[in-house]
Amino acid sequence: xxxxxxxxxxxxxxxVDVGDKAETARTASAEGFITMTLETxxxxxxxxxxxxxxxxxxxxxxxxxxxxxxELIPLCxxxxxxxxxxxxxxxxxxxxxxxxxxxxTRGRTGVEMEAMAAVTVALLTIYDMAKALDRGMEIxxxxxxxxxxxRSGDWKRK
Length: 158
Fold this sequence. Notes:
Blueprint: E1 24-35, H1 38-45, H2 54-67, H3 69-72, E2 81-91, E3 96-107, H4 112-130, E4 138-148, E5 155-156
Antiparallel strand pairs: 1-3, 1-4, 2-3, 4-5
């Protein structure tokens, strides 16, 4: 890639001007994982953590992160989201949790960053709430699964 969109002619970081782009329906989904001991996974699943319901807290934290992505990532545009969701799935084969998030808007720029912010903050919230039981938890594999809409069209991870 020779044409970096977030760099001006003098090599300075800049926010991309999306003013001339058409407003279209845009969606994105992302996922990530946190591995832990089976004992920690069971405590989370049974809502037995001293800090409370980790799954509920992580879901809300992820949604809040998606809504505030432009405050966290310097060159992201503020986006009026029309939908955000976060799912947390226990997976004993990891052992750990798979976190999936999605974001939607009708606008001039995509929502991949909002979906990944939701996943990442949900995973960090799980770590924070369960670290008293398991400081060895590991967050990994945060990536976009799919995006739809916009000038570049649809994309799906193979």
